[in-house]
Inverse folding.
């Protein structure tokens, strides 16, 4: 092989075999130190402190009086907390599914090279630039039975029409879904559109030659190829579900009664309004544990898939 001017691939130095310290200069490690310190002290430190407080009888101020799992027992005997968990599950399922479906349909629509594509992308993505407080207030006015859609229908002659979900205990959670889906579906559209634009045109040419319907190509070939973009969108939407607070405060204040209570609002109310740091910390740890239990396997499987690709 050497006589032919060729070298064995096994004799070449592998970039993967180099130690991490050789690939990354000292300056890069120094630049990472502020972020490492932030993660260790600001994130992990506060998590550990919250876990410690959740095991005490802390009320207005942190206390060293150890109470074991008393706060957790009290938490799961609190009707308001159980309602908030039920609401967040219903909201999360509806919100994520609706955002994924609408975002995918919008991405497919724009991927057809429609007229004024740039303007349409801006229109669909613009709501995501708004704060959840602004979104909540706008939708509160729209859904207000005396000012919004219901009143407009009554003036048009549909006197028996009802759209008073925001004051109905059985439907108020779905008004939160409507408002936040309107805001977040544009983000999903942008992520999936980027994935669609990365698909090879040869796939479409082969499908046209074989006479395969366009919808079948999307369902059987294109959508499975978007799994990376869809998984990214899922993680972002799941984080929005866990953080849901601003829209609830702006639209319903958790009402009527506790019909639209969510865990984040429960934690903030007990932390600042009712001065019960111990119970609020216990609720925070339960919420954190739930998030880790759902996302950790997801990221593990995704990393395994990436490693198999590299191999």
């Amino acid at each position: 092989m050497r006589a032919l001017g060729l070298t064995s691939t096994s004799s070449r130095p592998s970039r993967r075999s180099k130690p991490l310290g050789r690939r990354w200069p000292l300056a890069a490690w120094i630049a990472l130190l502020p972020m490492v310190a932030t993660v260790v002290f600001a994130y992990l430190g506060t998590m550990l402190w919250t876990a410690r407080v959740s095991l005490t009888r802390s009320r207005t101020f942190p206390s060293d009086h150890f109470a074991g799992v008393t706060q957790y027992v009290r938490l799961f005997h609190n009707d308001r907390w159980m309602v908030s968990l039920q609401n967040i599950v219903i909201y999360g399922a509806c919100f994520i599914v609706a955002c994924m479906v609408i975002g995918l349909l919008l991405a497919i629509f724009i991927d057809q090279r429609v007229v004024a594509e740039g303007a349409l992308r801006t229109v669909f993505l613009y709501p995501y630039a708004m704060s959840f407080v602004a979104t909540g207030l706008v939708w509160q006015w729209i859904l207000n039975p005396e000012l919004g859609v219901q009143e407009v229908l009554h003036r048009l002659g549909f006197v028996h029409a009802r759209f008073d979900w925001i004051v109905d205990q059985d439907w108020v959670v779905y008004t939160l879904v409507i408002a936040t889906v309107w805001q977040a579906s544009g983000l999903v559209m942008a992520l999936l559109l980027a994935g669609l634009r990365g698909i090879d045109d040869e796939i479409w040419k082969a499908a046209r030659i074989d006479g395969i319907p366009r919808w079948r190509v999307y369902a059987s070939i294109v959508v499975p190829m978007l799994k990376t973009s869809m998984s990214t969108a899922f993680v972002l939407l799941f984080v929005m579900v866990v953080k849901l607070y601003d829209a609830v405060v702006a639209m319903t204040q958790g009402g009527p009664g506790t019909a639209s209570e969510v865990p984040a609002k429960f934690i903030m109310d007990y932390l600042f309004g009712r001065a019960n740091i111990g119970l609020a910390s216990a609720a925070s740890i339960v919420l954190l544990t739930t998030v880790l239990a759902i996302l950790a396997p997801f990221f593990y499987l995704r990393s395994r898939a990436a490693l198999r690709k590299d191999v």
Q: What stands out?
A: The chain has a mean pLDDT of 85. Residues 64 and 84 are 29 Å apart (CA to CA).
